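so im writing up the methods section and need the Lipoprotein signal peptidase record in one place, dumping it here so i stop losing it
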Amino acid sequence: MTSAEEAGEAAPVERDAEPETAASPQPAPRRIRLLLSIAAIVLALDVVTKVLAVKLLPPGQPVPIIGDTVTWTLVRNSGAAFSMATGYTWVLTLIATGVVVGIFWMGRRLVSPWWAVGLGMILGGAMGNLVDRFFRAPGPLRGHVVDFLSVGWWPVFNVADPSVVGGAILLVVLSIFGFDFDSVGRRHADGDSPGRRTAGDRHKDEGDSQDSAGE
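--- predicted struct ---
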């Protein structure tokens, strides 16, 4: 067989492979950029609003926004989101640090854009409160978080708190409905759906393409 005939037979294989490549999920770095962008927005809003709250609000004195239902109320919180688990500041700091590390680890295999949104919300909120834990009084790992917004009977909170909770709810909903962080498409009860592709599949396809090119 001549070289021209070999090239003619190889061409259809390459054309057949093109649709599969086009259908493959976008690279993880793009999802990481989405995750980090959302985290940066949440972190910036959280830090700026806390600085303004400390500068402008009298400690512990409600400033009405909508009557007595919604008020600005500056407090220092040693606990978790919405003033939960007070008295365990250093434990909460270590947990939040572990969450941040875990999100960055998951980011290496991240494919789903909605998971990127949810993880970005959690990451931004966790880092916002970690800034207070490390840099506010009474000291590193024990710093009290600045909360400033009060709504009805709900505990006083900041921008980071609803971001963390909202991101966590989004991830739970995605998991319930069969959307995994490392795949595109919905997971069926009997396994992967025909159109569902994971990050591992994408890497395998890339390796097969390289092997074919080498042959």
